[in-house]
Amino acid sequence: xxxxxxxxxxxLMEDYTVKVADIAVKxxxxxxxGDIPADFKADRTVEGKDHFAAPGFVNGHTHASMTMLRSYGxxxxxxxxxxxxxxxxxxxxxxxxxxxGGELALLEMIKSGTTAYADMYGPHMESVIxxxxxxxxxxxxxxxxxxxxxxGRQILEDxxxxxxxxxxxxxxxxxxxxxxxxxxxxxxxxxEYARELxxxxxxxxxxxxxxxxxxxxxxxxxxGKRPFKYIEDTGLFxxxxxxxxxxxxxxxxxxxxxxxxxxxxxxxxxxxxxASGVSPVPRLLKEGINVALGTDGASSNNNLDMLEEVRLAAxxxxxxxxxxxxxxAKEALKLGTENGAKALLLDKVGKLAPGYKAxxxxxxxxxxxxxxxxxxxxxxxxxASSSSxxxxxxxxxxxxxxxxxxxxxxxRILREAQDVAMDLVNR
Length: 427
Known about the structure:
Blueprint: E1 3-12, E2 18-26, E3 29-33, E4 44-47, E5 51-55, E6 57-62, H1 78-90, H2 95-111, E7 114-121, H3 125-135, E8 138-145, H4 152-166, E9 174-180, H5 188-201, E10 205-209, H6 213-223, H7 227-234, E11 241-245, H8 251-259, E12 263-266, H9 268-273, H10 281-286, E13 291-293, H11 306-321, H12 329-335, H13 338-343, E14 360-364, H14 376-382, E15 389-394, E16 397-401, E17 404-405, H15 410-425
Parallel strand pairs: 1-4, 1-5, 6-7, 7-8, 8-9, 9-10, 10-11, 11-12, 12-13
Antiparallel strand pairs: 1-2, 2-3, 5-14, 14-15, 15-16, 16-17
């Protein structure tokens, strides 16, 4: 391991103030900000002048390898999109599709400032895990299981095997969750089996919840209850749970979320594009529920740019609530960083402070969209684009410098991704 010194950056402190300071990184953690110990000797120095240093984004919900289907099925209703475009094509995917799609996602996420992501997807997740370790960011990986499929139970068991083989891999970069797709695709006995396995092995749950009105109506007609009550009755919520979307919620749903400390993963870009609705984020925050942000998959967003999700979260709820104070810039940034770390059970991640993991993004402020610099947090959320990401450090390692990703072959990935995606849809 080595020591790293970032010189003279504008640093976003844990209280969301900004100060010009040096950052000392020892091995994987931030040692000091500002008052650097006299005996600290840097093995490497990064120039931080005219750069804004902020925590890396935490993408709380995505389907990484769906980059292969970006622009393949747009301007469609959710179930039409799933049934007629996405699921039939996903059924043809082989290991190479998953691997290359994952690599493309990792490249895009690093270049837009993401240092941790939660992925729920299909077979061959081992390839995505290995690519994540090589890329050098944190992956919270789940094998998505659909209970309506004949192989559903086997997929849950595969998820357990993934946990046993990879949880903690990559010097702690990888953690494994249990992927239970959604209430409308997972019958009660399937959810109960998922709970049994998850409890036995202490695996947290990643699930889609209440994304559309149609799925809520379907569950009510089938089981006489809303999806949150339905899943609660299977016992799944006994495990730590991240619930993606949480768009259509009533008082009972929110009470269940509070009771079980469920984290909501808000995906504003995807929900807007698919016209799913608007999650009641201001109310959830007032109720003390942890809300984080996700991009969802690149086929329903269509990018994996967390800075864009932060901006959407800040702006969408202002117009939806007709309140310019709803989800201010600092709150939106918190949703994309420390709240995501909390949701994904990442210890000492999501802030820049001594003792926290050195997951740091450096934004180049020598740009028109960063000028004038009255309020750097406001500039990041409302003005800057992810193209200003100049450097990325994760777990104390420099993985992107001067706009170039050091851990991935960008030219090869882009070329291969184009070829593989075309082959997939024409297969």
